Amino acid sequence: MNNYENVKNELSEFISGPRLTSLFEGRSNEIKEIINKMFYCIDLLQNDKELKGDDSKIIKKEDLNKLTDMIMYCTVERQTTKSDLDIIKNLAMLVFNYNQNTLKIESVAIRVSFITNFIDGFLSFRDCLQLFKALSERLNKYETYNFPSFELSKHYIATIFNDDKCKE
């Protein structure tokens, strides 16, 4: 199975499951319809068939702009899990590739690039926060720990200053 087929299967599961509704709330039917149109168009193109503008199953410029806006809203405004962000990123990349091969709308390409960069940056930032939290917890354990070498040094210094020979 090629990469497109993997993404298609993953997104097909997504649009037929409850995660679509929870992620996109009241717009899930629109999302499902546009994604299915996109699959239809890509399948036509893979079979070397022409996309006819009068076909109601063909994605129009408005559909792609609407889908991109909904993806951007979901990415930036909603609290999402890592698995949700992975799905959104796959969807965004599908939109990007479809756009680059068919409609070539510059604003869609820019917004999808923003979405993928935002997701990558956000996930990296979240990973850094988790790392810093773990490090902070480990450092807090050492805050009250007295290292044996420090205790020996304190004793050594006290011995030097308490020694009568050193006082002369």
Main sheet characteristics: none
Distance between the termini: 87 Å
Radius of gyration: 29 Å
The total number of structural domains is: 2
Rough shape? rod-shaped
Compute the average pLDDT: 87
Tally of extended strands?
0
Structural description of this entry:
The protein has 168 residues and is mainly α. The chain folds into two domains: 3-119, no CATH class; 133-167, no CATH class. It has eight helices and no strands. It has helices spanning 3-16, 18-24, 28-46, 61-77, 82-101, 106-143, 148-162, 164-167. Helix 1 runs antiparallel to helix 3 (28-46), helix 4 packs antiparallel against helix 5 and helix 4 (61-77) packs parallel to helix 6 (106-143). The model has no long low-confidence stretch (mean pLDDT 87).
Chart the SSEs and their pairings.
Layout: H1 3-16, H2 18-24, H3 28-46, H4 61-77, H5 82-101, H6 106-143, H7 148-162, H8 164-167
Helix pairs in contact: 1-3, 1-5, 2-3, 4-5, 4-6, 5-6
